[in-house]
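Dear H.,

Thanks for agreeing to be a second pair of eyes. The structure we're designing against is below in token form, covering all 115 positions.
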């Protein structure tokens, strides 16, 4: 194999690795866009803090399995979101967005609450 071909093959392999890595990692940025676009924010608040119509979801959402099972199949007050309207990768990104929200400070670290 010539050196040129060798370098070409190595570059191609590197590109493939980068592509797969990106596809597997859930994106909180995209999750935020989808969360706003499909209307989760309307009931659960823009950062998942909860509201009058929906419970708090962030910063510690249900584990992904339970989260996705709920969103796909719920038949209570919340409408179910099935795959044709919300893809699995977009749902995983929403989960990443909720997980990425900052946690509230521990009350023990706030002097006023410890007097
Ligand atoms: C019309 C209001 C509404 C919208 C829109 C909505 N939800 Fe909900 N959601 C609720 C309500 C109300 C509940 C409480 C359970 C119930 O009664 O269905 C809930 C519960 C949940 C739960 C279960 C929380 C728990 O701790 O048990 C998850 C997860 C969830 N919603 C995620 C989502 C996601 C993700 C979206 C957007 C794709 C969304 N919801 C859109 C109203 C809504």
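And this is the sequence the design step returned. I haven't edited it by hand at all.
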């Amino acid at each position: 194999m010539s050196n040129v071909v060798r370098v070409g093959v190595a570059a191609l392999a590197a590109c493939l690795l980068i592509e797969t890595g990106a596809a597997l990692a859930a994106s909180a940025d995209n999750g935020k866009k989808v969360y706003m676009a499909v209307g989760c924010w309307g009931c659960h608040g823009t950062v998942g803090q909860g509201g009058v119509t929906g419970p708090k979801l962030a910063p510690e959402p249900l584990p992904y399995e339970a989260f996705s099972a709920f969103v796909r199949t719920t038949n209570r007050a919340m409408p179910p979101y099935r795959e044709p309207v919300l893809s699995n990768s977009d749902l995983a990104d929403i989960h990443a967005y909720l997980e990425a929200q900052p946690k509230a400070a521990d009350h023990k670290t706030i002097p006023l609450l410890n007097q």
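Two observations from my side: The domain at 27-104 is CATH 1.10.760.10 (Cytochrome Bc1 Complex; Chain D, domain 2). The CA atoms of residues 76 and 91 lie 19 Å apart.

Warmly,
E.
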